[in-house]
Specification:
The chain has 300 residues and is of the alpha/beta class. It is built from 12 helices and 9 strands. The strands form 2 sheets. A 5-stranded parallel β-sheet has the order 7-6-5-8-9. β3, α4 and β4 form a beta-alpha-beta unit. The longest helix is centred in the C-terminal third of the chain and has 22 residues.
Length: 300
């Protein structure tokens, strides 16, 4: 199986500074030709704005061709096995980006593909987003180390990838999650064993106090819409508002992977305010995605 990018640690920690440097160059000089003559399949079992547009534009700007495949508009929607889809797409395309539900689906596609697979999002991991978030922190604050990172909200796929990042880079990460919504303790233990300084609390104020980076996400992710009302009750008090942000370091920035529900997990004045880097962060998905594409294709 060719080297792909299913979780953040599929690219070694020492390789990331070079990839982020490359993303910075691609941000300054957007049109390159490193994917000339290559095609990339973008497969979506979940709806998407940023992932789809950033990868489709990214492939184009690198001189390649993107083939967008939705669940409803392909044989996947009629039950074709992932293994068969992987084999067929591998004969047509040079890489596959997959946005889906369980991580096991990403792993199965990668198992039967003979080209690199990039995880555009699964229920358990969101590596392209957290790679972008770290790039944004580096760009905005000048470094990624020596900072305090606070996560406020659900112990979801974003939290999982932040935990993985903490273990890879030795970050200090504080997670504030309500009772019953904490991340997998085994993942936390594993990241701590790798050097991550991770603490868990149910008090967002404790997590944010003195933090340099505050991150949050919607309370009900795709596929959890039926739980939205219950989650609003459970997450009461976990809104990133002005009072919470004022507890952070003076230079603190606020990140949100979007889409956002203003007035739920974050207030409008914070998301649209001077501390927010959500819009820079969203644009950076393009540049980091391009660097990841180049990397997996060079490594194939």
């Amino acid at each position: 199986m060719p080297r792909g990018f299913l979780t953040l640690s599929d690219i070694a920690p020492e390789r990331w500074p070079g990839l982020w440097d490359r993303a910075s160059l691609l941000k300054r000089e957007r049109v390159q030709r490193t994917l000339a003559g290559k095609s990339v399949a973008l497969v979506f079992e979940k709806a998407s704005t940023r992932t789809r547009v950033s990868f489709e534009v990214g492939v184009f700007e690198l001189g390649g061709h993107a083939v967008v495949i939705s669940n409803q508009g392909s044989q996947l929607g009629r039950g074709e096995p992932l293994a068969d889809t992987a084999r067929v797409l591998s004969g047509y395309c040079h890489a596959i980006m997959f946005r889906t539900f369980g991580q096991e689906r990403v792993a199965e596609l990668a198992k039967f593909a003979s080209v690199p697979v990039i995880n555009g999002l699964s229920d358990q991991h969101h590596p392209c987003q957290v790679a972008t978030d770290l790039f944004t922190v580096r760009e905005q604050l000048g470094r990624t180390d020596g900072l305090v990172y606070a996560w406020v909200g659900d112990g979801n796929n974003m939290a999982t990838s932040w935990i993985e990042a903490a273990g890879m880079f030795g970050l200090e990460l504080r997670l504030a999650c309500p009772d019953g919504f904490a991340p997998d303790p085994a993942l936390v233990t594993q990241a701590r064993e790798r050097g991550g300084r991770i603490s868990l609390t149910r008090d967002p104020r404790e997590a944010v106090a003195g933090a340099h980076v505050i991150s949050t996400d919607v309370w009900a992710s795709m596929g959890q819409e039926a739980e939205a009302a219950r989650r609003r009750v459970a997450f009461a008090g976990y809104c990133v508002d002005t009072a919470l942000v004022q507890l952070a370091a003076p230079e603190a920035i606020v990140l949100h992977c979007l889409p956002a529900h203003r007035g739920e997990e974050i207030t409008a004045d914070v998301l649209d305010g001077p501390r927010s880097r959500a819009w820079v962060q969203a644009e950076n998905r393009l540049h980091v995605g391009k660097a990841i594409l180049e990397h997996v294709l060079e490594s194939a």
